[in-house]
C-alpha cells in the first residue's frame, strides 16, 4: 500500500524543516536542550552487510554552533498505523545512527492518531528485559490545538504541523486562519521553505473552511498569491468582485500546480499545460493541487 498523504506530508515537513524538532521536544515533551546548538538533517539510511538498507523517516542532529560537533541525534519516525515490524527495525535505525555520529541518539515517533501514540509508546525488549528501548512519542495530545499569531510567526513549522493534525476538527478555524496568515507573511518576505508549508496547510483544510477564511482575509490560499492573486483580484474588480475572486483563485491554483510539479523535478508536457490552462473546475483544480505533491510522474496527475 502506498504511503498516505499525511505520512508523506509529515515526513516532508520534518525532513525539510529540522528546526521543528527542538521546538517539539521542548514544548511537547518538556525536554531541556543545551544552548548554542543548531538543528540539521542527519543520515537517514543505515547500511548493513548482506542486508537491505534500513531507512528512517528522518534524522535530526543537534550540533554545536561553534565547531559543528554532534551533541545529540534524534531518529524520527512518522507512524500512521500499527506495524509490528517496527519493533525490529527501529532498534537498527537507532544503533546505526548512533554508531555513525558517535553521540547519544533517541527515537522519536510522531503520529496524528492517539491510538497509534499508545501503541508506539510500548517499550521494546531487546534482550531478557535488561536492554529496553523506550521511544519518545508525540501524538495529537502533545501538538497544540490553538496558537496565537505571534506564536505562529515564531514557529510556522509548528503551526503547519498543528493544522495537519487538528485542521479538520471542530473549532479549528482560528488555528487554520492564524497558520495561513503566518505562512503568507513568510511568502511575502521570500522566506525559504514557505511554499511547502502553504502546500501542507492548504491540503489539510477542507475546501469550505478554506474558502471562508479566504473571504475573511481577502486572499487566495495557493502558491504565489501575493503576485498572481492580487493582480487577478484587481483585474476582477473591474469586471465584478466575485467573478474576479473566482478567476484569481483558479489562476493561482493552476500556477500552484505547475510550481509544485516543477519544484519536484516533474515537467508538464505541452498537452498537459493546455489542459491545465483550460480547466475551470474548482474541485478538480484543488484535487490536482493536492495530488501534485505525491505523484511520481506529471502525467499521472491527469490520468486519475
Secondary structure tally: strands: 9
Rg (CA only):
21 Å
The quaternary organization reads as single chain
Summed over residues and divided by their number, the pLDDT gives a mean of 80
N- to C-terminal distance: 17 Å
Low-confidence stretches: 45-53, 221-241
What string gives the helices and strands in order?
HHEEEEEHEHEEEHHHHHHHHHH
SS strand fraction: 5-15%
Number of helices: 14
Coarse shape = globular
State the helical fraction.
40-55%
- Domain module tally: 3
Query: Structural class, judged by helices and strands?
Result: alpha/beta
Strand order of the largest sheet: 1-4-5-6-9
Q: How is the main sheet built?
A: 5 strands, mixed
Task: Report on this structure.
By secondary structure, the chain is of the alpha/beta class. The protein folds into three domains: 5-142; 144-221, no CATH class; 225-304, no CATH class. It contains 14 helices and nine strands. It has helices at residues 5-16, 20-28, 86-101, 114-120, 149-154, 156-166, 173-188, 194-204, 207-217, 225-239, 241-263, 270-278, 282-292, 298-303; strands at 37-41, 45-46, 54-55, 58-64, 70-78, 105-110, 124-127, 131-133, 136-138. A five-stranded mixed sheet has the order 1-4-5-6-9, with helices on both faces. It has a two-stranded antiparallel sheet with strand order 2-3. Helix 6 runs antiparallel to helix 7 (173-188) and helix 7 (173-188) runs antiparallel to helix 8 (194-204). The longest helix has 23 residues, at 241-263. The chain is globular, with a radius of gyration of 21 Å. Residues 45-53 and 221-241 have low confidence and may be disordered.
Amino acid at each position: 500500500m502506498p504511503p498516505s498523504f499525511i505520512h508523506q506530508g509529515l515526513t516532508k515537513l520534518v525532513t525539510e524543516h529540522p528546526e521543528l524538532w527542538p521546538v517539539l521536544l521542548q514544548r511537547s515533551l518538556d525536554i531541556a536542550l543545551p544552548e548554542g546548538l543548531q538543528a540539521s538533517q542527519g543520515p537517514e539510511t543505515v547500511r548493513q552487510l548482506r542486508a537491505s538498507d534500513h531507512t528512517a523517516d528522518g534524522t535530526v542532529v543537534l550540533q554545536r554552533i561553534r565547531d559543528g560537533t554532534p551533541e545529540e541525534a534524534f531518529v524520527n519516525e512518522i507512524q500512521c498505523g500499527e506495524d509490528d515490524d517496527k519493533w525490529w527495525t527501529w532498534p537498527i535505525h537507532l544503533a546505526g545512527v548512533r554508531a555513525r555520529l558517535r553521540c547519544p541518539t533517541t527515537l522519536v515517533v510522531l503520529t496524528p492518531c492517539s491510538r497509534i501514540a499508545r501503541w508506539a509508546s510500548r517499550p521494546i525488549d531487546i534482550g531478557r528485559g535488561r536492554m529496553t528501548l523506550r521511544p519518545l512519542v508525540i501524538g495529537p495530545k502533545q501538538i497544540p490545538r490553538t496558537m496565537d499569531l505571534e506564536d505562529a510567526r515564531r514557529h510556522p513549522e509548528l503551526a503547519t504541523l498543528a493544522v495537519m493534525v487538528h485542521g479538520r476538527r471542530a473549532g479549528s478555524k482560528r488555528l487554520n486562519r492564524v497558520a495561513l496568515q503566518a505562512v503568507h507573511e513568510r511568502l511575502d518576505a521570500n522566506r525559504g521553505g514557505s511554499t511547502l508549508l502553504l502546500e501542507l496547510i492548504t491540503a489539510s483544510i477542507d475546501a469550505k473552511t478554506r474558502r471562508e477564511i479566504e473571504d475573511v482575509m481577502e486572499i487566495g490560499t495557493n502558491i504565489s498569491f501575493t503576485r498572481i492573486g492580487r493582480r487577478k483580484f484587481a483585474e476582477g474588480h473591474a469586471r465584478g468582485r466575485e467573478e474576479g475572486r473566482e478567476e484569481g483563485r483558479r489562476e493561482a491554483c493552476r500556477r500552484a500546480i505547475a510550481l509544485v510539479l516543477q519544484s519536484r523535478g516533474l515537467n508538464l508536457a505541452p498537452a498537459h499545460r493546455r489542459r491545465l490552462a483550460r480547466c475551470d473546475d474548482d474541485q478538480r483544480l484543488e484535487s490536482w493541487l493536492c495530488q501534485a505533491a505525491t505523484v511520481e510522474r506529471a502525467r499521472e496527475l491527469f490520468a486519475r
